[in-house]
Amino acid sequence: MPEAPSYLAIMGAHVLADDGCRLWTAVAGDGPPLLLCHGGPGLWDYFDGVAELLGGFVRSIRWDQRGCGRSERRGPYTVDRFVGDVDAVRRHFGAERVNLLGHSWGAMLALRYALAHPSRVGSLIYVSGTGVDPDLTWRDAFHRNLTHGIGADAARWRELDERERTPEEDREHAILQWQADFVDPVTARGHAERLGTPWLGINYTCARAINAESRRFLRDHDVPALCRALTTPTLIVDGAHDIRPRWAVDSLERSLPDVKRVTLAGAGHIPWAEDPAGFREVVAKFVTQVAS
Questions:
Q1: By three-state DSSP, how is residue 151 classified?
Q2: Longest pairwise C-alpha distance within the chain
Q3: What pLDDT band is residue 5 in, cutting at 50, 70 and 90?
Q4: CATH topology for 6-138+202-291?
Q5: What is residue 65's DSSP assignment?
Q6: Is the pLDDT of residue 195 over 90?
Q7: What are the AB hydrolase-1 domain coordinates in residue numbering (predicted)?
């Protein structure tokens, strides 16, 4: 049997944060380090497909945020603490500077890390984020698009959403919701099922705390002004059919002094799942150019 490519040789390990919290990590591939921040908050790493796509170009460093997935189930659940955890993972793997890729909530976490530690970030890749609008004006459109995207399953989703759920029902609720994040209704359920397999349980305490703090940060700080001082090369990647309206990210794009933006026409909120070739091309080209 031929030897598997090196980018498929994934090592799993735990990293200790500076307060002793055990964070699950996995490393794969060869090239400049790319630290991946998953979305949620309250979810777990789902970047196995990204690690495979980019394995020939980068050394991907994946991790489960504290309290989530395979990491230790403990707080505190604060953005500053999560930023510190990103730094602990970076240090553990010996990277003086890393490229950061964040998706959805993870895009905001990656941005917050870059704002706190710009000298430690070689580049920032901001995927399917929701921008820096303090009034969250995108949310009404998101909720309308979500209901439309769930389609015929909307009644069941609402019924589950309005009551306490068993772990099995919690997974069903998430899968029904995640279907709306994909463009083609024929393949959406399969994509959503893969995101939820294995099912590691959503940490709703973490989600509520981090979301509330993130909203306060946007209200209490002039985030566009902070971004104008960030000289880190940044790539914004959107799926054209994301149910979170893409105009939400416009003010962030205008604020960053060194930014490129690419919209993948056939993709939704998880662009690497629906346009893997396009996602691989734009990310690999950007990281390669920054590293050269």
A1: helix
A2: 58
A3: very low
A4: Rossmann fold (3.40.50)
A5: P
A6: yes
A7: 32-270
The pair of structure tokens assigned to 240 is: 């054209």
Closest CA to 98 of 150, 61, 149: 61
How far is 64 from 285, CA to CA, in rounded Å? 26
Domain positions in the chain are 6-138+202-291
Q: What is the pLDDT of residues 8-27, one digit of tens each?
A: 334 568 999 999 999 999 99
Dist CA 57 CA 59 (whole Å): 7
- Beta strand extents in the chain (DSSP E only): 11-16, 22-28, 33-37, 59-63, 98-103, 121-127, 234-239, 259-264
Reading the block at residue 213, the tokens are 């703090």
CB-CB contact of 50 with 114 (8 Å): no
Structure tokens at 194: 């893969």
**Structure tokens of 125?**
């890749």
Per-residue buried b or exposed e for 256-286, using 16+ beta carbons within 10 Å of the residue's own CB: beebbbbbbeebbbbbbbbbeebbbebbbeb
Count other C-beta atoms under 10 Å from residue 171's C-beta: 18
Cβ atoms of 227 and 252 within 8 Å: the answer is yes
